[in-house]
Fold:
Amino acid sequence: MSSDLVWQITKRHSCFRVKGHYQDFSREPGHLTGTHNLKFSPSVNESSIAITGDSSGKGVRLSRKSGRVHKAHPKQTTAVTIRKDWDPRAVHKSVSGTVNSITTLPDKKAWNNAAMRKTSALLLSQSSRRLAKRITGRKSKKSK
Structure:
């Protein structure tokens, strides 16, 4: 079935949809941005990317769902763990290269930006407590 047809059926009646005041969100596993839209929905699109934290807490796990699979190859998702010895630039470069290598993504620039944001957030949450805790706003101006 067409992804547009599937989206028209499921957009209002999805169990993953969370209604917000101004915007709807999605709790769908593998959703990059968390907003309820057609572009990043993994259940509707034939190919998608999911970025999660590694189980050891020292890297990023990148899962890729490919759309059309031959009968000889029944596996539809592949997962890779990227650690790169705590070099965030190397991790970003690997994730960006993987996203850009997928030919069936509709808008590579948007997917790449969303993947970079998610990777940055995961790496920041896994870093030491001193780096993850940042003071912003009025408190930071008073403390200086």
About this structure: The helical segments are 3-10, 88-101, 108-126, 129-132, 138-143. The two ends are 59 Å apart (CA to CA).
